[in-house]
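Anyone able to model this chain together with pyridoxal-5'-phosphate?
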Amino acid sequence: MPRQKPSIRPHIDALHPYVPGEQPQGLKLIKLNTNENPYGPSKRVLEAVKKATSDQLRRYPHPTADPLRARLAEIHKCSVDQIIVGNGSDELLALATRAFVTPTTASLRGSNRGANIIQYFTPSYSLYPVLTAIHDAKKNEVPLTPSFAIPGPAALAKSSWNPRAALTFITTPNAPSGRAYKRSELRRLCETTGGVVILDEAYVDFAEEDAMDLTKEFEHVIVSRTFSKAYSLCFQRIGYFVGSEPLVTALHKIRDSYNVNGLAQVAALATLDDLAYYRKNFRTVIKERDRLTHALIKAGFKVFPSAANFLLVTPPKKSPPASAWYEGLREAGILVRWFSDPSIDQHLRITIGSPEQNKALMTRIRAMQKT
Ligand SMILES: Cc1ncc(COP(=O)(O)O)c(C=O)c1O
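re: yes, here you go
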């Protein structure tokens, strides 16, 4: 039989994949680049994971993570059927594109009817455009204001905002700016948007307000949460969605049969049994956020107000560009995030570390200012 040339779908062949923050292995570096928590999981979580590392590993985990969903349903005062757990919230964001958005078929090419449109504000989570491209959907990027606010109703009406977009992602608090959005403002957007709206609350535990209530008010609104950031479980990959039953049921239909590994389910359940430990950590991170903000302002940086566990900062005028600061910090073993996208390449995103890590960061910054 003649060999056939393997074919790759053209839009996948042309794809620029998501670029995650650098993840060097080893704990020597001061890692302030991917918004991980400086504090480890609680002792109860470590014990639960150790206990589960047993003969049990040969068994499949719970296919729908029911014990965890039951506990989450109690916390969020909703039914178990309104919750889906994923291999990180990233997995669920990808599933949402597949469940709710029609790829750009010939009949939809050039169409503005919305079925193939995924929209989001820019700048926000850099995964959204990649998910859009993977799904061969049409992206609609709507710029935030220069201070990363959502444009008001009049400005939004004049922008490319499309109330008929099949799927809208809103990162709240925003990443990479850290800016918080009011529930009332998000409600207004949900009211005027017809397709599915996902409020990505990856950083909400560091903010004053959340928008979970909107899932009770609107059938087309989903809130996305993760155990990665506030709950120190990046390594385990676990996140979840809360939304109306029809939307969540659709997502369950297309997920892998065992999409959440067993140790992650155990770790997440034990996390929810020790919330007091985590709440204390949130308070420490928030206090450190204030201290670091002041220290950076004193050193001449512009710091955007943040409701998350990171700061977006602009280096002082007449100092080297942000990329040079990134390199200089890296040479000293301190990793922060610099994005090459022209809309944010003049800034650095710095995760709030422990007091010692933040002190080392400021010491290096001051040393760089002297040279
Ligand atoms: C806004 C936002 N949403 C979702 C995620 C993904 O989180 P997870 O680790 O649950 O996949 C991140 C991670 O950086 C994020 O910044």
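The chain is about 35% helix and 15% strand.
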